[in-house]
Write a structure and sequence with these properties.
The chain is mainly alpha-helical and about 425 residues long. Among the domains are: about 1-130; about 200-235, no CATH class; about 345-375. The protein contains 12 helices and no strands. The chain has helices at about 1-15, 20-25, 30-85, 90-115, 130-140, 155-195, 195-205, 240-260, 265-275, 295-340, 345-380, 410-415. Helix 3 (about 30-85) packs across helix 6 (about 155-195). It is elongated. It starts with a helix and ends with a helix. The model is unreliable at about 345-350 and about 385-415 (pLDDT under 50).
Length: about 425
Amino acid sequence: MEADDFDLEKNKTKETSPSKILVHLLFSHFGIFIVVAIYAAIGAYAFVEIERPHEERLYEIKQEKAVEVNQTMNYMANLFWFYVDKNWTLDSYNATVYKDLKKLESFIISAVQNYNYDGTVMNWDYSWTFPNSLLLTMTIMSTIGYGHISPVTSWGQFFCIIYSIIGCPLLLVFLGNLGNSMAESFTYIYSRCCCRWCRSVRNLSELPPKASKKYRKLLIDDEVGKEEYMPTEHVDVPITLTLVVLFVYIMLGAVLFSVWENWDLGSSSYFTFVTLSTIGYGDMVPGTALLDSQNPGTAGLKMAVCIGYILLGMALLSMCLNLMQEQIVEKCRWLAREIGLSGKDTVQEAKGKDKDKDKKALDDIDDDKKKKLDDLKDVDKTPPKDTLSVPSSAGSRSSLLKSPTHSIPGALDDL
């Protein structure tokens, strides 16, 4: 007994070992979410470290170009006063000044387009900040791809490839598990809440005649799962209900981003749908509230809410599509059965099945006949229980062996 107790304790120790607990935690929904969050944060930090030096060089070049633009503008102002002293006609003066202004305009436009010139020398809005980079990593893993920022260095682009190869499947696994759990929970809630009236009618119909309603079975006592009536695992959620849930979720996000980003409700709804469907045109990107450098605490909280909304919304969209797919497939099968494409045999298949049935019936009849013949042979070989055995040495009684199988009582007295 002591050895058995020791083995039992050893097995319990193995089952509750820290390594197994860690594995179960990592493969749970919460564990995968933590892994995704850590992976996104590490990727954001890595992108900042890779791309920030290049942006610092761009900032220095922008400062140089801004100084050149200011010097050029001062030079042009002095040059115009020089033109006045030449006593030119008004038409000549205007033509010359117009040409010089067009050159200055081209120079400023080039500085704005190529070097991010904004009219100042020291002002610079860094693109590669941690919140911006975190939003980039989430759009990479979710395949949304806003395009608000993108790696421009060779190392950054190479790291983006490696990061996507690992991050996209990781997030898809998380969304798949979360979507399946949400689908099961939503089906369960629909079965247990929305179908309560049907279950109440069922319970009333199961009562014996003239029985009191207080004896009916409580809904809470129903076996969850494989029930005899409306089993939870086979309940089909209506497409209308899934569309309503999806519409409500999109509108909640539309109202939220409309308040944060000062968008109109229509544009905000468009943004939420394009985001959740992973289309991600990038024409509208959240940034006013999420990337507010003056209020980093509030901006960080809004960023977390935005990422959570996107992840939950993608899982919800996947859940709704799966539920609608089941309904559509079932409707298509029903339509195919109704029009004779499936579920009904064609004439040739029916004839073939009839021939198979007839052949099987004949084979069964032959088998029965063979069985009966075998039984008769066994009966002939087996001596009857009431037959009298006579020793073979008795010659006077050898004729008894030729007598009928069933002897008449009292025949022994005649011998």
